[in-house]
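subagent[fold] <- orchestrator: predict structure for attached chain, return tokens only, no commentary.
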Amino acid sequence: NITSAISKRVLEVLSLSGCLTTPSNNTNFLDALKGLWEKGEQVPTSLYDGLGGSGKLDLTGGDISEVKPFKAVVWEADRTPKVGVEVGAVKPETDAASEMAATAKENFILKIGGYGGSQAPAQAQNLKDSLADCGSDITVSIGLREGSSSMAEAQEQGFSKEDGTLGEMFDIIGQSDLVVLLISDAAQAKLYKKVFDAMKPGATLGLSHGFLLGYLDSIGESFPDDMDVIAVCPKGMGPSVRRLYEQGKEVNGAGINASFGIHQNVSGKANEVALGWAVALGSPYMFETTLRDEYRSDIYGERGILLGAVHGIVETLYRRYIREGMTPEQAFLESSESITGKITKVISKRGIKALYDDLSEEDKATFRSAYSASYKPNKEILQEIYDEVRSGNEIRTVIMHGERIEKYPVGKIDGTETWIVGEKVRASREPDESNIPLNPFTAGVYVACMMAQIDVLREAGHCYSEIINESVIEAVDSLCPYMHYRGIAFMVDNCSFTAKTGSRKWAPRFDYILDQLAYTAVDNGKPVDMDIISDFENNPVHGAIVECCKLRPTVDISCEAPTTTKEIVIQ
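subagent[fold] -> orchestrator:
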């Protein structure tokens, strides 16, 4: 079992449906790698050095930056998945398509519960396309409540009542071997007992977010102990999942990465089912987590640098730059555009430390001043958010907000000056975006928040791959491209209810604390805290981020390319 043999600190990639076989036999996967080396094949020595006589890989110590990832799923140009390893020139040719097709002989039926949110339309289409591409007879069906406004959209994407691929939610759940429950978090909290009761014996519950576990934790309940419970969580919102899948059809390895977790494994096959699901989604890399760690880091991250914090940071920087004498347009360029158009693009490809190292000496001094003053105020709010999520308070806030929603509908935030100016600025961009600056003060404030978020998760014991996914990768490779395309306010207004609730609650806290503590420290000439800067420069996460940059999608997500994905827009 490769997952138990390798430390969670490795950025691990696994294969579909238990196909951890070699070209010639079914021996231990790591023994196979050692065998390849002995035959003179091109296996990196850094990987071989970890292999002991037993074929196990000892990664309990050492620097994460020295660990090389396995790549176990190779997407060919025709999008046929191959299972094996890609190490140097070695590509074992075990065909995942035949494994998926063989599964269909057991009458495995895949059903997707819910189609109205961000993830469901994208996942349903990806799964349907992947299974068709490999010749599988596995059925992908959509379950919706009667009268759902999503019925017409599902029909447009080829799902129909006539062939049994579209139906009432609980009827579909009752027929399913794998129920991928992608209805809203609030709906899961309301309907979970009916979902559990409707599932047939031996069925697996699949989730793409751990919110339901968090809710059950908060009320002292748990999943039924006779079912497998798994999670596959794409590292981006639904439109990103579909767009990168479509854009990557002719690009080897394109697609959006995902984390996976096995919460209950009654059948002994939960790991294989989760990995098969991730492969069919088009994820070239999968990172192991637990469902509990996932919901804590995910709900926390949404309120932090992914949405809430970046919203608050831009609002407060925009006002600061106006006070310093900038025009509204220039203030927006130096704040929001600098983050989404320059800063995050460097981080995406080369890491946080490279952003700092590339600055001139004068700009580094400005960065250090902003970072030193902003790190602790940001971390104070971020630690509070994490504690609120871990205790269940934040989940209860979402549930209570949902109960008030009809009386107090959620309004939009894009009517304030900052975002109105932003519309004008985006419309006047140079084609090559050469008018967008990389402002070192903005970079210092933004990176201080990102690093503070990382450090809170590190101190709470989360693994590196999850820390980086929830604090860096999802921000720079999925959300910020959309923010750059449509605006941060658009993202906040059109994200999931759980994310929107948290972002709107916590963004003002970041706004106020930076204005009240960080900027006053800078303006009053408070010396830079060199211990904070040293901790930043020497943080062990930088090496892990560099490794994760190597695993980023092979194409940049295009927000303007034609797509069949559902774009949720609140009017």
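orchestrator: received. Logging for downstream: The first helix runs from residue 2 to 5. Residues 1-30, 32-107 have pLDDT under 50 and may be disordered.
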